[in-house]
Write a structure and sequence with these properties.
The chain has 65 residues and is mostly helical. It is built from 3 helices and no strands. It has helices spanning 6-10, 20-34, 38-61. α2 runs antiparallel to α3.
Amino acid sequence: MRLPTHPHRFGLGPVPGVSPATVMEHGRILRAVLRRSPERASQAMREHLGSSPRRHRDRYAEGGA
């Protein structure tokens, strides 16, 4: 699975206004990696990447930053 380039564009640090859902998704990915569970990490990443476009669309449609 190839990762998109957006983590490089936004950096790896905290982003102001990041949603609680994003923080939870990142936590799931990190925990799976730390537990050395590629299956769980892959699933968590797929879920994160699948929900990310909707969150961004909703955020900008509402006039958010």
